[in-house]
Every structure is written in C-alpha cells, then in structure tokens.
Amino acid sequence: MSSDKKARPGAYLLATSHPLADCPLHAAFVAVGGKWKLTILYWLAREPHHFSGLLRRVAPISHKVLTEQLRELEADGLVERLVAGRVPAPVQYRLSGYGETVLPLVEEARVWGLAHLQRMRGPDPAPSAAALGCGDALSR
Predict the structure, then answer these.
(1) Which fold has domain 24-121?
(2) How far is 138 from 48, CA to CA, in rounded Å?
(3) Residue pLDDT, tens place only, 63-103
C-alpha cells in the first residue's frame, strides 16, 4: 500500500470532448460544485483542520466521500495537504492561496442560501441543529 494518498495531477480536469468544456460556469461547478465542496471550503476558510476535525464539522459526510472531495480540491489547487512528521503523520488541510480566490463565491452562496431559507421558511426560521454551523459570515 502506498503512503502517497495524493490524487494524480490533472485527475479531475475537464474533458475537452465535453460539450461544455469551454464554459466558465461548468468549470466553476466542476471545481467547487456538488454536495460538500462549498461546506468544506467554508470550514477551511475559517482555519486549517485535521481530517477528523473536518469530518466532525461537515457531518454527516462519510470518511470515503470526504477523502474524495479533499483529493479533488487538492488536485484543483484549492486545498493544500500539510504533512507534519513521519508516517503516520498528522495531516492538516488548509486553503491554498488560489483557494482563497474562491471565498467570495463561497460567501455569496452562503448569503443567498440564507435568504432562500428565509424565503421558504419565513423571516425567523428556528435554527436547525443540522445546519452544520455555516451561518456565520466569512471574515476574510
């Protein structure tokens, strides 16, 4: 078993044969779309996290899915994986400099989502315990 858990460079690049390969919206969605990536980026924007810390923050995500999402974010250059020491080394994840450029999108999605929740549930919805704690604005 290899100790190198990094995704292959370019493993998640857009296929040039895809009909939307040149569409900027498609490229953005491939990089940060899906069920978990914006939430992962939100928590990494607040502070670097160990894998287990992210697993708790982004619950109910599974271990396997979090691993896949982090590898994809790392392959796209949005997240850095920092290994501190020898194997088994503690690993921390943090936003890369390039990853910080996506924070306005993350914050706008959070603000829009809050407005959408208020529109659908009324102006004062009771906060849900399952809201993942994503209600606070990013302060970057």
Answers:
(1) Arc Repressor Mutant, subunit A (1.10.10)
(2) 14
(3) 999 999 999 999 999 999 998 877 777 899 999 999 999 99
